[in-house]
Amino acid sequence: MTKRELIEKIYNKEKDNITLNEDGVKKAVTAMFQAIRLSILNGRRVQLRGFGSFFLSDKRSNTNFRNPTQKKHLKHFNKLKFKLSSQVRREINDV
Hints:
Elements: H1 3-14, H2 22-41, E1 46-48, E2 52-60, E3 66-67, E4 72-73, E5 76-84, H3 86-94
Antiparallel strand pairs: 1-2, 2-5, 3-4
Helix pairs in contact: 1-2
């Protein structure tokens, strides 16, 4: 699902219950993604209850790991991880 599809789905499902027009829904979704992105960039864990959580994992590499483009060895790097909530995991396994 793309960001555009998400906006359309939210707008079409809730258009009778909310006072926002489609542009307002777009701004809200964009603001939500921006807040998630900034939190992750600041090293904070983002937990969306009932969905999952995003977090950075600090990986230490051995001396054989290198960036082939820049031809330099990397000591450590951050890796973005996502963990599904147990509720979503149960729903997927029940399907």
